[in-house]
Amino acid sequence: xxxxxLVPLDVYLKTSYRPDCDYVxxxxxxxxxxxxPHARLQKFLLLLFARHEDEWGVEALPEQRVQVGPxxxxxxxxxxxxxxxxxxxxxxxxxxxxxxxxxxxxxxxKIQERVDDYARMGVRVIWVIDPxxxxxxxxxxxxxxxxxxxxxxxxxxxxxxxxxxxxxxLERLELRAKE
Length: 179
Hints:
Layout: H1 9-14, E1 22-24, E2 27-29, H2 36-51, H3 53-56, E3 58-62, E4 66-69, E5 72-74, E6 78-82, E7 97-101, H4 108-121, E8 125-130, E9 135-139, E10 146-148, E11 151-153, E12 160-162, H5 163-178
Helix pairs in contact: 2-5
């Protein structure tokens, strides 16, 4: 197993990666993505969140760099920033919600590292959705992922999504694509 080449923070911040990469203590980390179920679920949630931005007082942002620590940057699949969102190019204030959608190669141990970073930063709620197994999880500020079978929500806000709705819509999108 080889040794990772460390990249200075200023180089990471000036570099455009396609797709964007996480940065963890000097190491540039590629994210698993690019699979259709992941993309369909991300699109569905982004459109849902965007329809409610004014009502919920949030801004929905896909794949936005979030500085979770002095030398750590994560790119959640989706996030909701409370308005007003005064962060400029990089989010440095804790979002209300970060959403991670699993790709087929993702492992829960690696996802937990991401969740822990968000929790340490002060993100109130983190959702992890697995389109491959039809499961959803949520964590609060403690970072402890718990299975959710009914409703994903952000306590103290009107933000909620029925888990069954997520997977019914994914199924509908997959069937429509085959017609």
